[in-house]
Design brief:
- The chain has 6 helices and 14 strands.
- It is an alpha+beta fold.
- A 5-stranded antiparallel beta sheet has the order 12-2-3-13-14, covered by helices on one side. Strands 6-7-9-10-11 form a 5-stranded antiparallel beta sheet.
- The chain is globular.
């Protein structure tokens, strides 16, 4: 296909739909009884200097058949944010990668980075585009977290299947998603304290994932991936199970 040069917008997903529509993920009719690979559990919390986001490493079919104990569910999106994925594994990974390119494309076209709200809204649009697929069981339920350079603090965004965006209120500075999310949330409700240092926050995320794995067979793996995001950028931790 010949590339058209009259598009100057800052959205890579719009450019992809216009120039190479065959490359855009489309909902497909799934045969009856199709087994889908899912990934859980993910969580995020703020700390004194920023925000921490993490996920386990297990992918399952129907929540109890283990397909892999070494999958990646947390992705660095840009220099000051990261995304954790829960839901159907294939579409979730594709969305994370498309989101990375979306933000990089915007920065190259506009010469500046999007605000945190702008980034969160871009991800919301990608989730909304996936809604027809979600109605067929190809669910994507991510968490998005980053350091807001404008207000100098970490922020967390949750989403529903329609792309609805929710900024966590200050009185509840944590969020969870996935089949083990309720148990992970219980950990934060009991042990989260304002003013936590980075190392303490990383340890609490690890504890929340471990607590979820004790009762949720879909949660587990060889180790967990945790990213701390502050004014210094994104720092990755890999903790053994």
């Amino acid at each position: 296909m010949a590339f058209l040069h009259d598009y100057s917008g800052a959205s890579f997903s719009t450019l992809l739909q216009r120039e190479y529509p065959e490359q855009v993920p489309r909902p497909v009719a799934l045969p009856a009884g199709t087994s889908l690979v899912h990934g859980t559990t993910i969580c995020a919390m703020t700390y004194t200097d920023g925000v921490v986001i993490g996920g386990d490493k297990r992918a399952t079919i129907d929540g109890h058949v283990i397909m892999s104990d070494d999958v990646t569910k947390v992705y660095k999106v840009d220099d000051y944010s990261a995304m954790a994925i829960a839901g159907t594994f294939g579409p979730s990974v594709k969305m994370a990668r498309l989101f990375q390119v979306e933000l990089e494309h915007y920065e190259k076209m506009e010469g500046v980075q999007l605000t945190m709200e702008g980034k969160a809204n871009r991800l919301s649009q990608l989730i909304e585009q996936n809604f027809p697929a979600a109605m067929q069981g190809l669910l994507v339920m991510p968490l998005y977290a980053g350091y807001d350079l404008d207000v100098k603090r970490g922020r967390i965004f949750e989403y529903d299947v329609t792309g609805g965006t929710f900024t966590r209120a200050q009185h509840e500075p944590f969020a969870t998603s996935g089949s083990g999310g309720d148990r992970a949330r219980s950990t934060f409700e009991h042990f989260y304290r304002p003013g936590m240092a980075k190392d303490t926050a990383v340890a609490l995320i690890k504890q929340a994932l471990e607590f979820a794995s004790r009762k949720d067979t879909a949660t587990g793996g060889l180790y967990s991936i945790i990213m701390a995001i502050s004014a210094d950028g994104v720092e990755e931790f890999r903790t053994e199970a």
